[in-house]
């Protein structure tokens, strides 16, 4: 197969919107590029398509993310896009660094990688074994630090980043400007618009928490108005989730928690509820097996910590324990970003649940109804 170099690849697969196809067509196969867009614009899908296109050049190509759960989802997406003779691998940034620089890759006191030391290492081998230097595609790129991007500027043949700075949830994150500064002044910038995931009602609620950037376009679809729902305890919460699952047996229901204890308690109740589909719980601490290898495509209930929710989507989302944010300043950017991410995971229905004697302050200002008698 003749390696492609500077010409754009053709659109390889159907199913993309015209705006998404235009985005791919505008990305040359050389150089560094940043694609930004709001939730629901299809950034993760485009990242997978972009990686497949780059693999046609004959170079090793990796689709990287910080989150293990998102990496698993991207791997499943790639399985339906792979072109024979042009393999693409989905991996975590952590896994790629360990493979590229060894298990003894230098780290800082906080346990994350020492990007400065790794950049010096990459500089000493610059130009060696050039054919093995990979194309890198980064999904949810706002979750990685400028130091990472200074490293990959030297360690990759090209870097394409998909990001939304309104979804920065990690301690080591970057703004869009920081990403382009670290990758170099010649970095191309493309913005993808549209929201193909949320209903108008869900997007309007998310807008209350958005921290910056241009206002996203309003989705075309309308649906159920989100509700704030009070629960007397975890058992009542689990019963309501089970009711939702029974009423919508073909739906994927994402239960997003802030407390791992709440997740464990909910899992125990749901396992005894006789659901049609066995509930799933994701734990980043699990080495492998049941709580690590989830099937996110099948119907049923999935419990996930909010730190792992980015990049996912569900027919119904239940933000289960909003009371854990009661002591947080409702105007804090970190709180607003967290809820912006969680709310925009929902395709059709959204429930914000709380326990206690009064609603959390950040819910009191919302112009949505309080539902004391759970009905879907």
UniProtKB/TrEMBL annotation:
One term of GO molecular function: 3'-5' DNA helicase activity
InterPro entries, A to Z: DNA_helicase_UvrD/REP (IPR000212), P-loop_NTPase (IPR027417)
Any one Pfam family match given in the protein's UniProt record, by short name: AAA_19
Cellular component terms per the entry's GO annotation: cytosol
GO biological process: recombinational repair
Gene3D superfamilies: P-loop containing nucleotide triphosphate hydrolases
PANTHER family cross-referenced by the UniProt entry: ATP-DEPENDENT DNA HELICASE SRS2, UVRD / RECB / PCRA DNA HELICASE FAMILY MEMBER
Designated name of the protein: Uncharacterized protein
Organism lineage: Bacteria, Bacillati, Actinomycetota, Actinomycetes, Kitasatosporales
């Amino acid at each position: 197969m003749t390696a492609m170099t500077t010409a754009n690849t053709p659109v390889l697969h159907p199913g993309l919107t015209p705006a998404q196809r235009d985005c791919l067509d505008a990305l040359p196969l050389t150089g560094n590029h940043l694609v930004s867009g709001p939730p629901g614009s299809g950034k993760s899908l485009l990242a997978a398509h972009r990686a497949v296109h780059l693999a046609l050049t004959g170079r090793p190509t990796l689709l990287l993310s910080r989150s293990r759960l998102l990496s698993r989802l991207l791997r499943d997406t790639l399985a339906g896009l792979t072109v024979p003779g042009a393999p693409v691998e989905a991996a975590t940034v952590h896994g790629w660094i360990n493979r590229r620089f060894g298990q003894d890759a230098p780290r800082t006191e906080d346990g994350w990688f020492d990007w400065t030391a790794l950049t010096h290492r990459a500089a000493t081998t610059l130009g060696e074994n050039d054919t093995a230097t990979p194309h890198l595609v980064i999904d949810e790129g706002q979750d990685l630090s400028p130091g990472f991007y200074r490293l990959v500027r030297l360690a990759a043949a090209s870097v394409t980043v998909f990001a939304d700075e309104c979804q920065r949830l990690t301690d080591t994150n970057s703004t869009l400007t920081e990403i382009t500064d670290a990758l170099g002044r010649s970095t191309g910038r493309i913005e993808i618009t549209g929201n193909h995931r949320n209903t108008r009602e869900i997007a309007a609620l998310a807008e209350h928490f958005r921290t910056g950037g241009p206002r996203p376009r309003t989705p075309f679809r309308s649906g159920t108005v989100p509700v704030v729902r009070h629960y007397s305890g975890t058992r009542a919460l689990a019963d309501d989730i089970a009711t939702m699952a029974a009423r919508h047996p073909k739906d994927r229901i994402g239960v997003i928690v802030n407390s791992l204890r709440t997740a464990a308690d909910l899992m125990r109740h749901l396992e005894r509820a006789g659901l049609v589909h066995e509930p799933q719980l994701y734990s980043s601490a699990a080495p492998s097996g049941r709580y690590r290898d989830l099937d996110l495509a099948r119907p049923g209930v999935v419990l996930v910590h909010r730190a792992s929710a980015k990049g996912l989507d569900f027919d119904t989302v239940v933000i289960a324990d909003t009371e854990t944010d009661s002591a947080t300043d409702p105007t804090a950017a970190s709180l607003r970003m967290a809820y912006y991410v969680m709310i925009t995971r929902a395709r059709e229905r959204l429930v914000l649940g709380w326990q206690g004697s009064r609603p959390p302050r950040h819910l009191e200002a919302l112009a949505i109804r309080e539902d004391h008698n759970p009905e879907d």
